[in-house]
Amino acid sequence: MDRQWWQRLHGFPPLVWIVLVGSFFGRGTYFMVWPFLAILLYEKFQLGAAEIGLILSASAVGAALLGFYVGALSDRYGRRNVLLAGTAINFLAFALLAVAQALPAFILAMTFCSIGRAVWEPPASALIGDLVRDKQSRELALQFRYFLINVGAALGPIIGVWAGLSAQQSTFGLTALSYLLLSLAFLWGFARTETGRLAHRRRDMSANFRGTLAVLRKDHVFLVVIVANVLTLFIYAHMDSSLVQYLTRAQAPNLVQLISSMILVNALTIVLLQFPLLQLMRNIEIKGRIVIGLGVLAAGQVWFALNPVHWFAGWMGATFVVSLAEAVLFPTMSVQIDRLAPDHLRGSYFGASSFYSLGWSAAPLVGGIVIEWWSGPALYWLMCGLCGLVFLLYRLTERLSRPRWHDVEDQAEIGEGVAQPQ
């Protein structure tokens, strides 16, 4: 980072730092064991690939819809209560995962995990926009949040393996503890800091869910971007649970070490290269960065499809390529939503980005079915083809226009039976 970036970071309000540090600790403890959940379900309950995929997918589908609604609620009622609810749900969910023994309890806990994440993510990102008004500083905060998430993802597996915790169910208790501490930090931040009190009071009581839907329906560019990014998450997510299932059933040697190493390569690539890539692409527009990322992501899918099961270094190389795509795409997608969102609907727009999890949640089910009926390489060839479809969707946005916000809001008010001011 250059000196100007450090100055911007130093100027962030305390609540923004609570979001950033909380993201780091929450994701670090999460990655100690969550990527190994497919192994736990396979060994503990002897489930097939399609069954594991169905469980992992079903636990997140409803959460995507909930995240959209929660984002709209945070616009209307403020961020504080929604954020506290999200951290409380995450605490209960991971505490239940730490002690669950029966399959129904596992499924319930995983559903709460997905709900908690959907409740937490939109208002957390929107809060950064509320408190950091300078556009470049706000984009740096969103980039830095993603950076810290990946630092946590890098350290989590290392600490887990070193402490003998990986693939151990009890590790979820540490994640529960991190969310409990985060709840206490939010209570302090909103009550004891000036920016926290201002953020707690800042709300738009004129916002309503039906009116927000009316606005979003008129923003055709945003709707196509959401569909494109859902597909992007769907493609990327097959490096997670689908790949674990593929390697498990193909009897790849040293499976836990292989998966831990891939997670480490993924996270370290983000940690070491995210900001150099940001600096390198600083003069490239958002859409251009996304097109570059899609090309790299497609190359990674080809490598996954062609890599021999027993070639350890090959899996590391393919993971590195896909991680480069992630370093470009995912932070840019957050910045993209922030730029598209009007100030008074920032929570709703970040809430709509919760639909990305539809792509993530569908990946284990589709991946499990394709692996069970065809093969792992067939899955990744299919994902390479989908990268081309996403590229076409982004080309389509160039032909679409965006609404004039006041005109659309007036129409939404008429639909609600509210008279326009004279």
Automatic annotation (TrEMBL):
Its main location: membrane. The chain crosses the membrane at residues 12-42, 48-70, 82-100, 144-165, 171-191, 220-239, 259-278, 290-306, 312-337, 349-371, 377-396. GO terms for molecular function: transmembrane transporter activity. It is found in: Cell membrane. GO terms for cellular component: plasma membrane. InterPro entries: MFS (IPR011701), MFS_dom (IPR020846), MFS_trans_sf (IPR036259), MFS_Transporters (IPR050171), Sugar_transporter_CS (IPR005829). SUPFAM superfamilies: MFS general substrate transporter. It is a multi-pass membrane protein. It holds the Pfam family MFS_1. Keywords: Cell membrane, Membrane, Transmembrane, Transmembrane helix, Transport. Residues 15-402 form the Major facilitator superfamily (MFS) profile domain. It comes from the Bacteria. Coiled coil: none annotated. This is MFS family permease.
